[in-house]
Amino acid sequence: MGAVSGIVAxxxxxxxxQLAAAAGRPEASPVTAVGGAVVDLTPVAVREWAIRLFGxxxxxxxxxxxxxxxxxxxxxxxxxxxxxxxxxxxxxxxxGLVGALAALSRPDASWRDALPSLVGALVSAGxxxxxxxxxxxxxxxxxxxxxxxxxDRRGFGRLVVAVLAASAGVGLGARRLGAHGSADATASRxxxxxxxxxxxxxxxxxxxxxRVPGLGPFLTPDQDFYRVDTAxxxxxxDADTWRLRIHxxxxxxxxxxxxxxxxxxxxxxxxxxxxxxxxxxGGPYAGNARWLGVRLGDLLREAGVRPPSEGGPADQLxxxxxxxxxxxxxxxxxxxxxxxxxxxxxNGRPLPFAHGFPVRMVVPGLYGYVSACKWLTELRLTTFAAxxxxxxxxxxxxxxxxxxQSRIDTPRPYADLAPGxxxxxxxxxxxxxxxxxxxxxxxxxxxxxxxxxxxxxVDTWRQWVWPWEATPGPHTLEVxxxxxxxxxxxxxxxxxxxxxATGWHAVDxxxxxxxxxxxxxxxxx
Length: 525
Hints:
The chain is an alpha+beta fold. Helices cover 32% and strands 22% of the residues. It has helices at 2-23, 30-41, 44-54, 58-83, 85-104, 115-136, 153-191, 259-262, 296-302, 331-334, and strands at 138-139, 151-152, 244-248, 255-257, 267-275, 286-295, 316-321, 326-330, 341-346, 349-350, 360-362, 376-382, 405-410, 416-417, 420-429, 435-442, 448-449, 451-452, 462-470, 473-483, 505-511. Strands 4-3-12-7-8 form a five-stranded mixed sheet. Strands 5, 6, 9, 10 and 11 form a five-stranded antiparallel sheet that branches. The longest helix is centred in the N-terminal third of the chain and has 39 residues, at 153-191. The two termini are 51 Å apart.
């Protein structure tokens, strides 16, 4: 009964906390707040391991892990309550305090963010007291009538069911309230019509998409575009109430813009490949899309900003998200003429919420952690010496240009191939420098020239394919690229920290002898 009481009390507390968070900020719910604090405190090596192991499911795994720990604590607290109820109540209060402190540690938190965890702890303590005191008065079914207030085990069971039913009702109310809170944002996205670009992107060149089986499309569909961020709850921002503030050092004319005023400026369209700095050699965290938005460099000049090369005092542009994330970008990079955008559209549609609706930054040539702020709400001009953005405080480099990389997409790892001609294909990228050459070799032999897809500017990846006459036996395929400056991709293997991985992607395969069925090889990522 103690274990059951602890679990039921925890469920009631979480439901109540969720309702309190839905009435305020969803990010202040205990699981979300604690999860965010865990992400902040997790060592870089552990975080990179989690991304490699779980991919984009890392947030789900983190949430389930927190719930599992909470369930174990709840069982232990319930068992303690049977022997010493005041101590168990104190443990429950301590859990609420942990949640409150975690919520207060989040960027841009206010004292109100502590309330959901405290409300949850109060409700949990009350339910625990009710169930444990009732449980101590239970008597076996069929036993003689006990003292005043005694109940049989069935009565205790009915009390548990009643508390769980009430908790379910509270949880449903929290969900509906949260849905109502995000309804305006959902409706604003549904109403939002992308403006016609003043400067549209030309059609994707014929031959850019090689259409090789096993090779993805040249433009990555929204639903397949990678997502790596720290948001355990995707912010749903109302486009009608969204505002962007531009201020800081060297800003002669500070600006505060709503979406309508932002899009009164010329709107342009560009195909740009984005890459995450957490992308291992051969990894999946790169995607190519057609972005629509306003040129960021022009907007900064309108505010009176001058880049350092023209004597401007600020060399860092700190972008802030609605969830408090900060990303620092070199001012010189966004004002040197490249297609740095405040994007509102992706592949011909408004940005998905998961990719930053209503407005996000896109800067070609830089890794996402120093350029691609989603759910943008503030741009502040400062210096790298004066301020370290979120990831810089966690061992990553202040500035990080995308490194030349190439990847084999087909044949897949552990492929068991028939002998004969096999298309070896993949993608290569060096944003803002372009790709001029891709070479493939087998078993450490001479490098062979791959055929490149047609270039779509210097800011996108290029597909490539090489026809391989596969012979029976185990083989290792390797790929390397040469960027538009003539620099050849290095084969030296380094990890992702502090400014991106390097090395050649290698895949081991096995080619069957005619009439045989040998086991597959292995990927040497």
